[in-house]
Amino acid sequence: MFGMSKKPRVVIIGGGFAGLNAAQQLKASRYDVTVIDPSPHIEWLPNIHEIISGVKKGDELRMNRSILVRRLGHSFVMQRAHGLTSQFVELDNGQRIAFDVCIVATGSVNNTFGVAGADQHALPMKSVEQCQVIARRLHRASLSHRTCRVTVVGGGIEGVEAFGEILRAYRHRPQFEFTVVDSADRLLSHCPGNLDGAIRGHTDRLRVEYGLGKEVEEVDAEGICFTDGSALESDITLWSGGAAPNPFLAQAHLTDAPGQWADVNGTFQSRQRENVFIIGDAAQPQGMALSKQAFHAIDMGKAAAQNVERLLAGKALRDFTPSSKPQVVTFGDLDTFMVFRDFALSSGVLGAAKEAIYTLGLWQLAPPKNGKDLLHSLDLLQKSVRRVYLPTVNPLALLDKLPKSKVLS
Ligand SMILES: Cc1cc2nc3c(=O)[nH]c(=O)nc-3n(C[C@H](O)[C@H](O)[C@H](O)COP(=O)(O)OP(=O)(O)OC[C@H]3O[C@@H](n4cnc5c(N)ncnc54)[C@H](O)[C@@H]3O)c2cc1C
C-alpha cells in the first residue's frame, strides 16, 4: 500500500501541541509533511490566564506557526479542514490535500454544556484574544467607581488560575466584588489535597463569595440563574466550564455521533481508518483515562509520529504508555500548587517553576538556533520570573507574607 517511490505524504490537521510535536518528529528528508491550521499562531495556553492581570502580553504567548513549520522543512496551509476521506482532506476554501497517512490533532472547544445564554453573555478564556477581551473589560471597569461584580464559572484548574490573576490585579480595588461558581462542592475537586481550603484561606478577608454545589441554568446580561431557583448579579462573567470535542471529529466521521471524543486504540489509529491517527485532546485512547493536558498532547504527538513511521515501513505499531507529570497550578501572586497523583504541595516559590516550564516549552517548540537566540530566551525567562513572581518576594519586607511551603494531603 505504501510502496511509492516518492516521499510518503503525511498531513497533520491541527498545529497545536500534539500536531506540532508530531511534525517535529517526522523528518522532512523522509516525509512530505503538510500542517493545516486556520490560525496563524500557536498559543502557549497553559499561561494565557496571565494576560488577564497584564503580567504577560499576548505576543509573549504566541509564535508564528508558519515559521515554526517551515523551520522543520514542512509545508503550512492556513485553512480550516472540514472533511476527511481515507485519501484526502477537504479544506474550507474547496482545496483537497491528498495523503498517505493523516494525523488529526484538532484539540477541543469551549464547553458551555448547552447552558442558555452562556455563549452570548459569558466570556470564554480559551485563547490569547479571548483573555485580552477579559483583560480590557476588567481594566475598563477599574476606571469607574461603579460596583463591578465579577463571576468566574468553573472552579477547576483554568478557572482557579484565572481567578488568581483577577485577584492579583484587582483585589485591592474597592469597586470589585468576586464570586466563583461551580457545580462541585469544592474548588479544584479533581485535584488531591485540600486545595479548596488553601485557596479559601487566601480569600477570607477579600470581597470574595463562593457559589459551590450549584448548577448554572442560564446566563444573561444581568447575571446568572441557578437550577435551584437562586440568582446572582454579575457584570462580568467568565466561563471556564471545561472542554468539548471539536465538531470536526463528527464532520470527518471519526465519531459515531456529534459531541463525542474520537475513540482510538493504544496506537492512536482511528477505529474507522487505519491510515488516520487521532491525538491530543481530540483522542480518547481505549482503556486510558487521560486528562486533557498539554504534556499528554506533546507525548502523544511524538508517539503517534513514530507509529506513522512504523506503519509506512510495514512494521508493527506500538501502544502508548502515558507518563505522569506533576502539574503546577498558580493562584495569582497568592499561592502556587504542585499537584501530583495523590498529593499536592503549596509554595509561593513554585511559581518560578511554572515560568521555567513555560520557557522550556517554548524552546522545545522553537529550539534556539544559536548562542544569541539562547541568551535572548534566558533573558526573557529572567525578566518574566522577575515581573511575574518577584513582586511577591521583593521588597524584603514582603517576604513574611509569602505563603509557607506545605504538603497538602
Ligand atoms: C486556558 C487553558 C489553560 C490550560 N492550562 C494547562 C496547563 O497548565 N497544563 C497543561 O498541561 N495543559 C493545560 N491546558 C490544556 C492544554 O492546552 C491542551 O491539553 C492542549 O492544548 C491540547 O493540545 P492539542 O494539540 O490536542 O490541541 P490544541 O493545542 O488546542 O491545538 C488544536 C489545533 O487545531 C486547530 N484546529 C481546530 N480545528 C481545526 C480544523 N477543522 N482544521 C484545522 N485545524 C484545526 C486549532 O486551530 C489548534 O491550533 C490548558 C488549556 C487552556 C485552554
Short description:
The protein has helices spanning 17-25, 50-53, 65-71, 118-121, 128-142, 157-170, 195-203, 248-251, 294-312, 351-365, 371-389, and strands spanning 9-13, 32-36, 41-43, 62-64, 75-77, 81-84, 88-91, 96-98, 101-104, 108-110, 123-124, 148-153, 176-182, 208-212, 216-219, 223-226, 231-233, 236-239, 243-245, 262-264, 276-278, 283-285, 327-331, 335-339, 344-346, 406-408. The chain is α/β, with parallel strands linked by helices and 409 residues long.
Mean of pLDDT: 89
CATH class of the largest domain: Alpha Beta
Q: What is the end-to-end distance?
A: 54 Å
Strand order of the largest sheet: 5-2-1-9-21
List keywords for this structure.
29% helix; five-stranded parallel sheet; 3 domains; 409 residues; binds flavin-adenine dinucleotide; globular; 26 strands; single chain; FAD/NAD(P)-binding domain; alpha/beta
